[in-house]
Amino acid sequence: MFRKKQSILFAIMISMLLLVVAACGSQSEQEPASGDSEQVNEEQASNEETTDGAYTVEHAMGTVEIEGTPERVVVLTNEGTEALLSIGVTPVGAVQSWTGDPWYEHISEQMEGVTDVGTESEPNLEVIAALQPDLIIGNKMRQEAVYEQLSQIAPTVFAETLRGDWKENFSLYAEAVNKAEEGEEVLANYAQRIADFKEHAGEEILSKEISIIRFMGGDVRIYQKDSFSGVILEELGFARPESQDVDDFAITNATKEMIPQMDGDYLFYFTYETGDGEASKLEEEWLNDPLFQNLSAVQEGNYQKVSDEIWNTAGGVIAANSMLDELEEIFLQ
Prior knowledge:
Largest sheet: 5 strands, parallel
Low-confidence stretches: 1-51
Oligomer: single chain
CATH class of the largest domain: Alpha Beta
Distance between the termini: 114 Å
Shape: globular
Mean pLDDT: 87
CATH architecture of the largest domain: 3-Layer(aba) Sandwich
Number of strands: 12
Order of helices and strands: HHEEEHEEHEHHEHHEEHEEHHHEHH
């Protein structure tokens, strides 16, 4: 009888033990340890940051937070417009091209339906506000005085300045519209074009001195290495005449006594015509001057008029690639 009671008690104890083990196993499957719980919380937070889509951009005026990829962008520089177009972003509003009605011919088709918001020097704030942008891209050198007003309309990103090298601002613009990868691809393709040109041109062509001249109403300029076309020639490895082989923008208000400084193996000139005919008149006067006619580049027929908007005024990536197209036709055919 005692043994029978002992066996029953033993069986009850085993049953209780199995219940405890089962409960522990169930708990371990459903509840992670404290360290695992922290990891799960971190992953959830990371996922919330990703799905939220907000990102911060550092720029010339500080930092700005942008809520998700912008869909309505207003751009206030010509080179900024070309940057956006090159990465597949058509702005809802943009400043006028310096020449054109209102856009440069080489981008006019891509700008169909885009609203004209004034000029780089005087953007129209009322028109910009009416477009209800979710991002404004501008430039401190051009629009610092209206930055606060622009910021009240939408998150605003400013580049520091405008230089001959369009790439200085390009990456900022691509980051601002949340298309950094697309921007890197554009830069890589351009770099490959430069490398291919240098390889095919060789030292014989690249040793040629290239002179760059511009005619404007009341001003003649001899462009140096820190101009738009000068930067591209430098990237390609072309030589420059002594007066132009300088890390500066240009010799402005050149006099006819300075015409000999314009000489080179090749001379390219462009004219900024505003519609009053003054620049074209100045161009004709200088080209027919005996000093100009005696330049070796002119004597040998190695001088050529090129597009002012492509070689200088537009100042963006699309113009840069178009200038490469022209140089390839001239030197690599």
